[in-house]
Amino acid sequence: MSSPFLWGTASAAFQVEGALSEDGRAPSVWDVFAARPGAIRDGHSPAAACDHYHRWSEDVDLLDRLGVNAYRFSIAWPRVVPRGSGAVNKAGLDFYDRLVDALVERGITPLPTLFHWDLPQALEDAGGWLARDTSKAFADYTAVVADRLGDRVGRWITLNEPVVHMAYGHAFGIHAPGRTLDVPEVLRVAHHLLLAHGLAAAELRSRGLEALLTNNLSPVRAPEHATDADLAAGAAYDALHNRLFTDPVLTGAHPDLSAFGVPEVPGVREGDLDLISGSVDGIGVNYYNPSLVLAPEEGSGLPFALGEITGVPTTAFGWPVVPEGLTETLVGLTDRYGSALPPLYVTENGCSCRDEVEDGRVTDPERIAYLEGHIAAVDAARERGADVRGYFVWTLTDNFEWAEGYHQRFGLVHVDHATQTRTPKDSFARYRDIIAARTAVP
């Protein structure tokens, strides 16, 4: 008998928990980065976020009302192993133990992510993802959490969107830890992230648990009347964004990165790719929009440039709304990797809207249309042979949206960040009705 399709929502510890210095939790790279003047829009502080650390029971009740059968959340590494390695913080583990118990009691499958960008600052001080030892520390942390929760949690995500953490955090400096490294060192970071996944997957599998890897994927669009240079730029972008963290785990090889002037990925040792290859029991797909890729201007420093997709609606973030891009992504993975591809899960999909509470209600027709369009896109991909087994909306509650602070509202539930009052939006009711219709017993 096959497992039921997973309908859920997704969140991340740093974006919702708050309580950044409570219960023995130590600082992460995002605590330090957010304290930099100008790093976060309008100086918004993540200190409280959605106060999920104290209001988790209320949030689980919301999930129950929503009717989801799965919840993707992340575990804060610095709350469990404050210095990244060494001493374990029992109080931190207790928090996630209570959360998992509450989910299971309500028939909601927990899907934890072990790393959603909040590296313990102590590890960053010791070299961060430039240091191979960080990969080993991640595996040790994984073992600690799996030993505590693995009796109730069978499926785990190791890393969330490593390409974004690599690029925004280590090349462009607009996310934590705010580094601006040269290309070879950025790719060293990539390899150590992949190695961390491989080592963590081995720990999970040795305990009879499944290991997933979640990637941010974006189908490449060429401009009208594309030149050979435009097409070459698209191939370079695809290799970096879509294949750098997918090819090694599915094929055991890196994509062609010659356009970046690097003949091989630094830091790879004998046996690394053997460990990384075949290390996934599922691929998480985070999809928001396609990318229009153009030939770069001379001297830009990158082998591609990004253009603006026009003629479609946009979110409050300015992102183009293109549901068929999700179908393209899921079917493209299926065609590209064939029998090497494990089951797929849409682990994030959602949009930011300009939501306001009026007379106790939040009307968000744009988000409803977005969800309906993208769920239909998943259906279309499944009809074309993609083995998709779950769909998770980003996100349950309006949260701390990284460098944007509280300006972008992605939630199905509105949060007044001054009072922490939660108000389910119209999209909450619509998603509830979709799930109910899809899961009703004939």
TrEMBL record:
Question: SUPFAM superfamilies per the record?
Answer: (Trans)glycosidases
Q: Which PROSITE patterns match?
A: GLYCOSYL_HYDROL_F1_2
Q: Which Pfam family name is an example for this entry?
A: Glyco_hydro_1
Reaction catalyzed: Hydrolysis of terminal, non-reducing beta-D-glucosyl residues with release of beta-D-glucose
| Acyltransferase is among the record's keywords | no
Question: What UniProt keywords are attached to this protein's entry?
Answer: Carbohydrate metabolism, Cellulose degradation, Glycosidase, Hydrolase, Polysaccharide degradation
Q: What class of enzyme is it?
A: hydrolase
Give the Gene Ontology MF terms in alphabetical order: beta-glucosidase activity
The UniProt record lists the EC number as: 3.2.1.21
Q: Which family does it belong to?
A: Belongs to the glycosyl hydrolase 1 family.
PANTHER family given in the database record: GLYCOSYL HYDROLASE (PTHR10353), LP05116P (PTHR10353:SF36)
Q: What is this protein called?
A: Beta-glucosidase
Native source species? Nocardiopsis lambiniae
